[in-house]
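Researcher: Batch entry, complex prediction.
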Amino acid sequence: MILTVTLNAALDITYRVPALRPHAAHRVTDVTERPGGKGLNVGRVLAALGHDVTVTGFVGGGTGRLIRERLTGVEDALVPVAGPSRRTVAVVDARTGDTTQLNEPGPLVTAAEWAAFLGVYGELVAGAEAVALCGSLPPGVPVGAYAGLVRTARAAGVPVLLDTSGEPLRRGVAARPDIIKPNSDELAELTGSHEPLKATQDARRRGARAVVASLGAEGLVAATDEGRWRAAPPARLRGNPTGAGDSASAGLLSALAEGLPWPARLTRAVALATATVLSPTAGDFDRTSYEELLGRVGVTTEVTAA
Amino acid sequence: MILTVTLNAALDITYRVPALRPHAAHRVTDVTERPGGKGLNVGRVLAALGHDVTVTGFVGGGTGRLIRERLTGVEDALVPVAGPSRRTVAVVDARTGDTTQLNEPGPLVTAAEWAAFLGVYGELVAGAEAVALCGSLPPGVPVGAYAGLVRTARAAGVPVLLDTSGEPLRRGVAARPDIIKPNSDELAELTGSHEPLKATQDARRRGARAVVASLGAEGLVAATDEGRWRAAPPARLRGNPTGAGDSASAGLLSALAEGLPWPARLTRAVALATATVLSPTAGDFDRTSYEELLGRVGVTTEVTAA
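Model: Structure tokens for the complex:
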């Protein structure tokens, strides 16, 4: 079983409007909604790849109920809280294709609720082959939360991937996660460097055993204790990048759980991320494209000295 | 019992953001939500005035469940449908105070669901002292829906107020409702005239027994078979006009149910609408202001020939 943790689970709502004009009233022509938050997205992709997946984190209120009802293909071990789970609203302008995002903050988690989660997490980790810790922290959760969760997983001998940003990432890295997967902005914020090769090495020195940085359409760059690689899709492709980073995390974990070496992990991550960009539905991946891309992702060894 | 009908009930969500910028991501700093749709708003104000209120119309899906859970002070006779009730999202820009509105379309109502509603409505009307038919029609409901609902109420001898717009208003007026309460745009669309006194008379000729037009901060103008009046607040007041029209409808129905003459009905409507503008919470009315305003609304007889 692979465990994914989503402390600030969301109901992701997408509205399509003919054209977004501030201060006007808009008739929404199309509404879609589904469970969101990075950990639930990673879990959905892992389940689609055939893994046993358990999802945990917090849900509450009417929105939490809607999130739970829409979970499919994963084991629901979410912990209830009194506050309401957040919605995110993505408003897509049909004229330009641009998206305007509105993100609710999420429930205020009490100390007792956080303690209850730690108990559930400790039990689940004991039965997991890998753990993904993903996304932002809801109000009330201590900023060092991920550091503690990383330590619990490491103490249990379970490999752990951390995908977050800002201070929770900075603190989490110090607890020595097996993999972090920042995008270039998150990596620059962590290390102060905008040069990915240098920054990935710096992030390793801060504690991460492996750093896999996502560089958008250019693919991934990885710094690990087994070597350094770049992995890139065969061509620059047009599409919707929403969820591509979560698909990359799922690819890394999936291949890690299967005991594959780093180049194969990176190939799977880039193929999944690219197949997500190519999918007509944001956050889903196109299976035919994925299988075809597995043979076409280029992985090259980086030989530059650190 | 006063019956209010909301065929396209909504969950009204308000988001406060520091500043709305298209194509950016926004952290929502404040979230409020409550049942909406004009009929539910009118029902809430009537209940606050001490009336027995029953609300009907359609609700469905997870949003419908949230609407029902949040109804307070009214009898819930909403009819379930398979499709999901709509959300409306009002995004308030904290810098300018301006609101950008996103309105979902509402559930697709089937012929069988419409027939089920007509059965419920017929039973409820028989026990009602007045009926309010309010708001837009969800997809699938016939455009002549309000005309039929007006006829049912009239056949039962129950006075009926109609507050809608466009073709549903045009058709509904022909069925001879006791009161229609258009705003100046709706009245101009119905009659082709932008001159309220002329237009209210024209709308009476189309079938409405009484026409009460809301002119925003200038108050109301009424054309009835007992005379014509203007009713205005004592001063132009700053505030949020959201829900003021629904409060005016509630005032008209409340005074009608108590057997008060037209000038007293208009006084109550203007006092409630003004106290709604003055309330810090959109759509609620400030009770102290309301009671104080009852003595200060000016009602004048219109003597201009039609």
